[in-house]
Amino acid sequence: MKWPLVALLLCASPALAFDTKEELGAGLFFDTDLSLNRTQNCASCHDPANGFVDTSGPVSMGDDGVSMGTRNAPTITYAAETPAFEQLHDHVWRGGLFLDGRAADLAEQAGGPPLNPVEMGMPDKASVVARLRENLDYVEAFDILFHPGVLDDAEAGFAAMTQAIAAFESTPDFAPFDSKYDLFLRGEAELSDLEELGRQIFLSPERSNCALCHMRHNNPMAEGETFTNYEYHNIGVPTVGEGGPDWGLLGREDMKDPKLGGQFKVPTLRNIAVTGPYMHNGMFTQLRSVVQFYNRYHCPGPPCQINPETGRYWGNPAVPMTLSVSELTEGPMLGWRDIDALVAFLRTLTDARYEHLLED
Questions:
Q1: What is the pLDDT of residues 212-232, one digit of tens each?
Q2: Are residues 25 and 82 in the same domain?
Q3: Predicted confidence (pLDDT) per residue in 242-262, tens digit
Q4: How many Å apart are CA 322 and CA 222, to the nearest integer?
Q5: Alpha-carbon gap, residue 126 to 145, rounded angstroms
Q6: Are 78 and 195 in the same domain?
């Protein structure tokens, strides 16, 4: 059973039987009963119709209809490809889920939103498991797919729920590798002249700094590329609104290295053309603005220093003392056609099921 069919069945019937952990996870993913006011589910912030992001604004509204998050919800397409959180060397970390890597894997990530007071708002694990036990189909499925009575224990039941959601998010539907770019690699599609120019600029260290952080494999023609090295960097995104800076990695209780301030995980570029708003605070609505933002580090004067979405200067980095200077300044300035070409190439990374979302 594919996840779109599960979603449709959930809309049509309150009672379902689940034969696999993946199907159970799909049911949980779309179940609003797992939020305090029964108004929000995983899909509220990770909409499967829109690249598994929330396109309603820079940050998402919580189950109470008032609370707002502080970070833009990242896509969970290709999230199962994320490596474990680890330190590579001094001041450099990689992997983990969430923008600050605080979740070790998909299961731990799935357990975060239900207990977050500004998201799904449940007070504790026992309350979540109590909601699960209201549904007899859940009780039967958990007993069969995990072990009898697993929902009788709050810790075990909550862990089983997160494992089921992780199983769903690990299915091939979340990482189909069927974009135009993938077809190009297989010899099944041709890139336009502009797309090919963008590919060359993206991959060439003499022409851009894109591949420094947005390539996982050394071989540019390797299949299964997720277009991120999963490292953490501070790229100088300004603060939005009147609040203080978001410290990223340094905001975690277990991170004490001051050089990690303002660092966020490099996102995948898969489906990037349809998963705005962009940056950890959702400050940009257009992909072209993101490319122009990076170009500011190569072009000292106007118009490169003007945000095309506001007509004003980009603004100062929220955490200026820890900028990834070498990565940001590598390569020459991009011309307007170069920017157009990069955007055209990035559009080719869109999964087949989301191509209809691409703007002309």
A1: 999 999 888 889 999 999 999
A2: yes
A3: 788 999 999 999 999 999 999
A4: 32
A5: 20
A6: no
